[in-house]
Amino acid sequence: MKILLMGHPNVGKSVFFNRLTGANVIESNYSGTTVDYTCGCMSLDGKEVEVVDVPGTFSLDPKDKAEEVAVAMLEEAKDTKDAYVICVVDSSKLERGLYLAMQIIEEGYSVIIALNMDDVAEDKNIEIDNQKLEQILGVPVVSTIAIENIGISNVISRLKDAKPVDVEDIAVRGAGAA
Amino acid sequence: MKLSPDERWNLIDSIADQVVTYGKYRHTLKDAIGELTVKPMTGIPIAIAVLYGFWSVFGSFAGTLCTDGFFVKLFDGYWLPWLQVVFPGEGSWLYSILIDAGGMTNGEFILSDNCFEAFGVLTSGLFVAIGVVLPAIVIFYLMLTLLEDIGYMPRLAVLIDTVLHRIGLHGYAIVPTILSLGCNVPAVTATRILETRKQRFIMMTLLAIFIPCGAQLGIMEEVIPDLIGYVLLYLVIGYFIFGFILNKIVPGRSPEILIDVPPYQKPMMANVRRKLWMRVSSFFKVAVPFVLLGCVVVNVLYLAGFIQWLGDILAPVFVGWFGVPKETAGPLVAAFLRKDLAVAQLSVIEMTQYQMLSAVVLVSIYFPCVATFAMMLKEGWKELIGSVAVLAVVVFLYGGIIHLIGKLIGVA
Q: Is the Cβ–Cβ distance between B192 and A64 less than 8 Å?
């Protein structure tokens, strides 16, 4: 089993990685801190799981070398049975984050969405209806504040609910109420 | 099924409409500080203050407090004299390499009286690594980590964007540039955040040539405190002049960027501690072996007469073109292994102030240290060859120009 941490630059993927694996990769408050991938291990139900900290990318159409690395990592995971993508999204910039998440879902990966930096969104008075989002997307959605270790265990416990989703279904559900 | 970008954005808009509610936006203190530090009118004075503060703390903590206040006394007062006595075989090869090469005065063998002159592996080698470089690196990375975790770096990037566009880069190039002031090795990897090959090449070349690492800064603070300002001035000017030229001659694009400026954050102490430890330890894994190896190599080459021979051959270039004594050949060999070591070595050679200034600038801009070299090779051999070619031209030209300036103002 393999877990990829993906998302925009500076949304906290490396923080997630360090909390999950107990490893040490550099975390900073600016984009582009991670330019190469890092692998680590965590144990889940007594099994060893590989966790990959992927460099930040805005989309699956790479613009720089760090993003190329990111896309290549995702491609490589295609061959792994049991690959999950934790898509880390900045809660205060949901739309942008969803764009990448949708692209990854369209590629057929099992995705779980971590709405990170919940505190920042709260500061900005932005509220997200997680249940509704989860219902529309059909993938687990969990709020987190990774830097304070809040919500990370929820993400892990909901991994089992992640499965490939047909984007046509999302389109139907997403357009429904609008 | 896959969506087109337009379809995807439309779908996301429709989803966001259903799940996100925007409350009234509160203008917080964080926002206010954020704006003050990014608007040019207030941001530039603040940036200057921050960088000046950075530099003052660096100099006073590493140079004055740790090195002069503690390590110099420890190494020169106790460690060196003790080793000189207990280590057997004074004057032998092994003694010269490990402890003290000493000097001949009136046909008599005289031991050195400080750790800069001794140049043994166990004396100068350890002194440079632990007494000078360790405090410099620790304080540098501590302050860098704080700036990073607070979220100041992207603001600095915004402020300096216009200037860096002149040399084919953009504001974000400030990240590899500042990282490079700690150590060029991780900075080479950090150039990956730049979009095009042209930008990456310019950045890598400039940092390999013009940016002194933390170890070198630390030792310069220690041995040439009066000249370090001029050395840095020459390097900064060179960075921009040659950046400007490279931007004109290297083919490729330098796109605009959109920078994401994150909100300020309170740094988490656990993260700062861990990051500091990782950076300092990975620095030392690279640095210490090379400092010690550098001492061995240089001593052996001295004893074998190679350095004197090289100095004689290069004398016309050194004396005539660069205006520095031919003895600087030795430090230039050492500079390939470790620049901090080379500066330490320069400091004990007899020369005028201006010659010292020229020699230190030469050591800085000449070949990157071997660890950086290896890192650049990893990023692509074509770029490496290109960088080295640029470097050769720069060293020759800029070295000559510095000599010429010295002549014009009448100090060389």
A: yes
Amino acid in the structure at residue B173 = A
Residue of B nearest to A67 (CA): B193
**Contact between B202 and B250 (Cβ < 8 Å):** yes
pLDDT in tens, B61-92: 988 899 988 999 999 999 999 998 888 888 78
Is B201 part of the contact surface with chain A (CB cutoff 8 Å)? no
**pLDDT, position B73:** 92
C-beta of residue A40 within 8 angstroms of C-beta of residue A20: yes
**B246-302 per-position pLDDT tens digit:** 999 999 988 888 877 888 888 888 888 988 998 898 888 878 888 888 888 888 888
**Is residue A144 within 8 angstroms of chain B, CB to CB?**
no
Please state, in angstroms and rounded to a whole number, the distance separating the CA atoms of residues B118 and B396. 31
Instruction: Supply the pLDDT for residue A69.
Output: 85
C-beta atoms of B154 and A31 within 8 A: yes
Q: Is B40 exposed, middle or buried (0-12, 13-18, 19+ CB in 10 A)?
A: exposed
pLDDT exceeding 70 applies to what percent of chain B?
A: 99
Cα A64 off chain centre by: 20
Cα B386 to Cα B35: distance, rounded to the nearest angstrom: 41
Which pTM was predicted? Answer: 0.85
DSSP SS3 for B182: helix
Phi, psi (degrees; rounded to nearest 5) at B227 = -100, -15
Q: Which residues of B touch A113 (CB under 8 A)?
A: none
The confidence score (pLDDT) of residue B105 equals 63
Interface of A with B in 64-83 (CB under 8 A): 64-66, 69
Q: Which domains does chain A have, with CATH numbers?
A: 2-176 (3.40.50.300)
CA distance B357 to B344: 13
Tokens in use for B228?
């370090």
- pLDDT of B363 > 50? The answer is yes
Report in angstroms the alpha-carbon separations of B60 from A116, A165, B143. 40, 59, 13
Q: Which amino acid is at A146?
A: A
For the record, the structure tokens of A77 come out as 């995971």
* Structural domain boundaries in chain B: 32-408
Alpha helices in B250-352 (DSSP H): 269-303, 306-315, 329-337, 339-346
Output the pLDDT for position B345.
87
Task: Give residues 8 to 37 of B whose Cβ lies within 8 Å of A.
Answer: 8-9, 11-26, 28, 30
Three-class DSSP category at B377: helix
Collect all residues of chain A within an 8 Å Cβ-Cβ radius of residue B260. Answer: 8-10, 31
Mean pLDDT, consecutive 10-residue stretches, chain A (178 aa), reads 90 88 72 74 86 89 84 87 92 92 93 91 88 94 91 92 90 74
Residue B46 structure tokens: 């603040």
Q: State chain B's mean pLDDT as an integer.
A: 88
Candidate from A26, A30, A133 with C-beta closest to B151:
A30
